[in-house]
């Protein structure tokens, strides 16, 4: 495009978890597509993500209002609603100045509502599968916004059942895979990497080991932290870890999890609710590590049972233990084959270049009716 574009990109976090890194890749994609554009970014607060955004952004602004945090809404509902309205009014003024507005995740409620009235160039990247009630509320909000939707998986698209494009995440965490070493009689090393959250399954895994899996020869490493206000989750997790027969280490969040992927034999993705995508699974594949994952949501689009990892019924402790037993019973040759298959799956489908090309193709100033994927077509694609 000859005319210089003004692009606004809004994100709900400032750390370096999965959705944060995917946001950085989206910013990079649009900078590559529109090298002369003004790209302004809104974050809730300063954080480690800034260092990755600075090379691609024109300006980074901070506004923590208008983001739906469940615990804040429960404790201070009226104050939260007032803040939402104030943020909505501010975003309505702000979005008028931009040719493209891209909002990352549906919890950026005020920004999404402010997209109403635009004549194109408005996008919401949907990365969540909420509960049934919450999904109805978010669907109504997305319809109201009239924004074009991008989903991170067919599972997420099916949950919302609104027209949109499906773009799987991509990662560039590892240029090469770590060597898959032989166990030689040691315990199987299992790592859970990512935000500590009730539905992410860290507590489920330790409860399963403490009760049904006490005889399993495994060592577990939990890498991640909680949102502010959820510290009780971490306390309970540590108490359960202390009660396990196996050695369980709970590490804090790290910007560079490469050493943890290299340490592990398998990465656990034990989500007890439908996982919208499962970025940790593709990071694991990029590292040449197979996955033991819940057979739910977007994870079933990533992991092939007994080929790139093992799947188990979500929130089923007995089936989880069976999946770990299957991993324990593998020969060295079988494990090497699975690790290689995981790496190849990443190379074929989940590189950051693939993701960025798709984002740059979809996100543009105007979207014609022909570019919108109808619900019926989306349903056929999902099947």
From TrEMBL:
It holds the Pfam family Glycos_transf_1. One of its GO terms (molecular function) is glycosyltransferase activity. InterPro entries: Glyco_trans_1 (IPR001296). SUPFAM superfamilies: UDP-Glycosyltransferase/glycogen phosphorylase. Residues 190-345 form the Glycosyl transferase family domain. Gene3D superfamilies: Glycogen Phosphorylase B. It comes from the Bacteria. This is Glycosyltransferase. It comes from Paraburkholderia piptadeniae.
């Amino acid at each position: 495009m000859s005319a210089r574009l003004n692009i606004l990109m809004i994100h709900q976090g400032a750390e370096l978890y999965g959705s944060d890194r995917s946001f950085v890749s989206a910013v990079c994609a649009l900078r590559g597509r529109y090298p002369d554009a003004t790209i302004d970014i809104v974050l809730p607060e300063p954080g480690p993500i800034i260092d990755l955004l600075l090379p691609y952004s024109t300006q980074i602004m901070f506004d923590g209002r208008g983001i739906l945090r469940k615990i804040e809404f429960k404790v201070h509902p009226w104050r939260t609603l007032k803040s939402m309205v104030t943020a909505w009014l501010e975003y309505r003024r702000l979005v008028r100045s931009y040719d493209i507005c891209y909002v990352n995740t549906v919890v950026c409620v005020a920004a999404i509502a402010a997209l109403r009235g635009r004549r194109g160039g408005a996008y919401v990247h949907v990365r969540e599968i909420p509960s049934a009630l919450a999904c109805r509320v978010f669907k109504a909000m997305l319809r109201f916004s009239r924004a074009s939707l991008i989903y991170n998986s067919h599972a997420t698209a099916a949950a919302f059942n609104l027209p949109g494009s499906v773009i799987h995440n991509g990662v560039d965490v590892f240029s090469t895979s770590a060597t898959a070493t032989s166990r030689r009689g040691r315990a199987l090393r299992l790592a859970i990497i990512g935000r500590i959250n009730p539905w992410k399954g860290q507590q489920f895994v330790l409860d399963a080991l403490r009760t049904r899996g006490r005889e399993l020869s495994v060592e577990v490493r939990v890498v991640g932290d909680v949102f502010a206000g959820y510290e009780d989750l971490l306390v309970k997790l540590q108490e359960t870890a202390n009660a396990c027969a196996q050695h369980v280490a709970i590490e804090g969040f790290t910007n560079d999890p490469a050493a943890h992927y290299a340490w592990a034999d398998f990465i656990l993705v034990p989500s007890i609710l439908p996982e919208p995508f499962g970025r940790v699974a593709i990071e694991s594949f990029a590292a040449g590590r197979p996955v033991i994952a819940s057979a739910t949501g977007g994870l079933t689009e990533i992991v092939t049972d007994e080929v790139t990892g093992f799947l188990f019924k979500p929130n089923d402790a007995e089936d989880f233990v069976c999946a770990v037993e299957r991993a324990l019973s593998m020969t060295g040759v079988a494990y090497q084959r699975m690790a290689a298959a995981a790496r190849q799956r990443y190379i074929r489908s989940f590189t950051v270049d693939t993701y960025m090309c798709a984002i740059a193709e979809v996100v543009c100033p105007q979207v014609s009716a022909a570019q919108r994927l109808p619900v019926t077509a989306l349903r056929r694609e999902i099947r």
